[in-house]
Design brief:
The complex is a heterodimer of chains A (about 350) and B (about 375). Helix content of chain A is about 40%, strand content about 10%. With about 350 residues, chain A is an alpha/beta fold. With about 375 residues, chain B is an alpha/beta fold. In chain B, strands 1-2-3-4-5-6-7-8 form an eight-stranded parallel beta sheet. The two termini of chain B are about 30 Å apart. The chains are: A alpha/beta (about 350), B alpha/beta (about 375).
Chain lengths: ~350, ~375
């Protein structure tokens, strides 16, 4: 397999909240009381059932507790062996599923404070993403501004499936704040389950939801591009996390073709979608959903027509590869350096 | 796609233009609002006048996202005798079938009885449109073949319609749309696949349709272009459902055609399915083989709107990964994003692959000599 290099940036690791009660110290009296009095249970999203094979690699699965809940394990499994300079923590705790904007804002605030205290304070290699309450744009912006004062927070984090398409104008204050504060917006696989997880309804299986993440990313990219987010906020970067990468080129052929056909509908999209993606959108490496043959992989990167789109990730503790084989076979040393070091630094201004 | 926007057009090869082709996606239209009434019971005529079709969408007429052109059709395709584009056989012959030497034209009627909440009305309208296809089209031009349109949400009545038409050489496939109340692999649709397999007819799944679900898994988008691009995501989810529910495993002789949803995404989806299946197959033990194998063996793809990468080598990669034996040329006549036969396939394709692409694959799949 392709050799890793030291000093890389892992753009997608997942520290796990052990239980909703772990957030109690970070909630005010009212919400602490709500959680206990109402008998609220742990917020685990069905996107990642704890025992599902994709949720944790067999050798990364702890004997007790949730995969990813131990800093020592994360150090032993990825930070040390991959010789990482930084790893960006993207908590996938199920706060997005909450419907009340008040409760969601309280939980997001607690989650972000928990991340800073229990992870970022304990290992200087770690950086954080700001989880925001999407039920209220106003509260989301306030949380971004609050957390952004801590420079260890390097991005804003949203899920790929929520209440509305992400390009919708009502959400733009979030993008304004992110651009102003030099925070890329990371969009991670997963759903609030406020809509069916596919555009043709509810499937039967966990595997169906997981495969469908790629289609969700595709529709969100369309929304973000055609609504004009990047015309309005040209310096805004967005990172598709755990999105898969082999669909990017054929998806863009289609979007580009239709944009040429009906661009009169969205005249503010004044650059070709391909160009917008090259300048504003990035993708995390894992899961690398392509066959293992190097010749196919090389062609896929050529189809993308850019070596700047992909950012290194292990997706720890999710099971995307075995051993140290985070980089698919066939990448040139130059491309490895771009993926592991140059591209992440160009994407995240707060990484120094 | 609209030819005025195309760049880098290859000079049309005279050989290509003259060669016979199959057009696997033609949309015949009704000339008048009441053209189906002779095929409908009085009860349903009355029902339509009073209540309309009551679809899984809010608007009484037209699409929820206004199209880019009237009827989403070419402005030069209005028949001289009047009526909407695609509603005249003689004009279709003159504009499409004769000049392009179409040897086989597969009709896929839209705006039929599909996507309607009243399932009895749905069945009646589908049966009517099937009679109408014979009377108005296939009986008058032997190059044209019809699709059995079925009431998609009621598998039993749909299967009955298929069995009634089975063996009728006017029909070469069963037609479904990609967007339904549930993903197409769900059990409610299995009677359709069973009947189609028994009848030896492929099931075509055309992009579009309405099942009430937002066209993104994150809610309703704003623009027509999002719906257009979104059809390929809907098709991917529908195909993933068909694989993961085990439809291809349960109906091993079933053939399916993905119509007007692109094919560039097919290799990526198949790889992703395979990778997820390696991890999660214990959840779906009825999926016995890697998903890509079912897709490779049982799925075909129509070409329009043709994938259009800057480099033709990229296109050839994708076709090679899918298989040159699996693509079916289509124009989508009379729709505005029509693909012109002579301009679709770049130079550099072997004569055998070119023939398969334009004609051979379709004749073989649809059993036309």
């Amino acid at each position: 397999m392709t050799s890793l290099i030291a000093g890389g940036i892992d753009c997608d690791v997942h520290p796990a909240v052990p239980h909703l009660t772990s957030l109690l110290p970070y909630l005010n009296d009212y919400w602490r009381d709500q959680v206990t009095t109402r008998g609220m249970v742990d917020l685990i999203s069905q996107s990642y059932p704890q025992n599902s094979p994709i949720t944790a690699r067999p050798d990364w699965r702890p004997e007790t507790g949730k995969p990813g809940e131990s800093l020592e394990a994360m150090q032993r499994h990825v930070l040390d062996p991959f010789q990482l300079k930084h790893a960006i923590c993207n908590p996938l705790y199920g706060v997005q599923m909450v419907f009340s904007e008040d409760m969601q804002a309280a939980f997001c605030r607690a989650l972000n404070d928990w991340l800073a205290k229990e992870w970022l304070d304990r290992d200087t290699r770690l950086r954080g993403s700001i989880v925001i309450p999407m039920q209220s744009v106003e509260k989301a912006v306030a949380e971004i501004e609050r957390c952004a004062q801590d420079k260890r927070f390097v991005q804003v984090l949203m899920l790929v499936m929520g209440d509305t398409p992400l390009g919708k104008r009502a959400l733009w204050p979030i993008y304004e704040a992110a651009e102003r504060l030099e925070l890329p917006v990371g969009i991670h696989a997963g759903s609030a389950y406020h809509n069916p997880p596919t555009a043709v309804g509810w499937g039967s299986y966990h595997i169906e939801d997981y495969v469908g993440q790629a289609q969700a990313f595709q529709t969100q990219l369309t929304s973000l591009i055609v609504e004009g987010v990047f015309a309005k906020y040209p310096r805004l970067k967005m990172v598709m996390l755990e999105s898969g990468v082999s669909w990017i080129a054929p998806y863009l052929w289609r979007l580009h073709k239709f944009w040429r056909g009906v661009r009169m509908e969205t005249p503010w999209v004044d650059r070709a979608p391909l160009e917008i993606v090259r300048s504003n959108i990035r993708f995390s490496l894992q899961p690398f959903d392509a066959p293992p043959e190097p010749e196919t992989l090389i062609r896929l990167f050529q189809h993308m027509q850019s070596d700047e789109l992909v950012l290194f990730s292990t997706d720890y503790p999710h099971w995307q590869f075995d051993g140290q084989d985070a980089l698919p076979e066939g990448l040139s040393p130059d491309l490895v350096r771009k993926i592991m070091i140059d591209n992440p630094h160009a994407t995240y201004p707060r990484l120094t | 796609m609209n030819i005025q926007f195309r760049e880098n057009q290859e000079a049309a090869s005279p050989l290509t233009v003259k060669t016979a082709i199959a057009d696997c996606d033609i949309h015949p239209a009704r000339a008048t609002r009441t053209e189906l009434y002779p095929y409908l019971a009085k009860r349903w005529q009355h029902h339509l006048e009073v209540y309309g079709v009551h679809a899984y969408q809010g608007v009484m007429e037209g699409p929820p996202y206004p199209k880019a052109q009237p009827n989403a059709s070419r402005r030069d395709a209005y028949p001289p005798e009047g009526g909407p584009q695609g509603s005249s056989l003689s004009f279709m012959q003159k504009q499409l079938l004769d000049p392009n030497n179409v040897q086989l034209g597969v009709l896929n009627p839209l705006n039929t009885g599909q996507g309607i909440r009243n399932h009895e009305l749905s069945a009646a309208l589908c049966s009517a449109i099937n009679d109408w296809q014979i009377d108005k089209w296939t009986s008058k031009d032997k190059r044209l073949k019809a699709s059995i349109v079925v009431g998609n949400e009621d598998g039993l009545s749909a299967a009955a319609e298929i069995r009634e038409r089975a063996g009728d050489k006017n029909f070469v496939q069963v037609l479904l749309l990609s967007r339904n109340v549930e993903p197409l692999g769900q059990r409610r649709y299995w009677p359709i696949y069973q009947a189609a397999e028994e009848a030896g007819l492929p099931v075509g799944v055309h992009a579009f349709g309405f099942g009430g679900n937002p066209i993104t898994p994150s809610g309703w988008p704003s623009y027509y272009i999002e719906e257009m691009v979104g059809h390929s995501q809907c098709q991917q989810s529908a195909l993933a459902s068909l694989v993961l529910e085990g439809v291809f495993e349960r109906f091993p002789k079933l053939k399916m055609v993905m119509i007007e949803a692109g094919f560039g995404w097919a290799p990526s989806l198949a790889w992703r399915l395979d990778k997820a299946w390696q991890r999660l197959r214990s959840e779906v033990p009825h999926v016995k083989r890697p998903p890509s194998e079912y897709i490779r063996e049982q799925v075909w793809w129509t070409t329009q709107p043709m994938e259009d990468p800057e480099s033709r080598e990229d296109l050839f990669d994708v076709i090679k990964w899918i298989g040159w034996d699996r693509l079916l040329f289509a124009t989508d006549y009379p729709h505005w994003d029509y693909d012109e036969p002579s301009r679709v396939l770049p130079a550099g394709v072997s004569e055998a692959n070119r023939e398969a692409f334009y004609l051979g694959n379709a004749k073989k799949l649809y059993g036309i000599n």
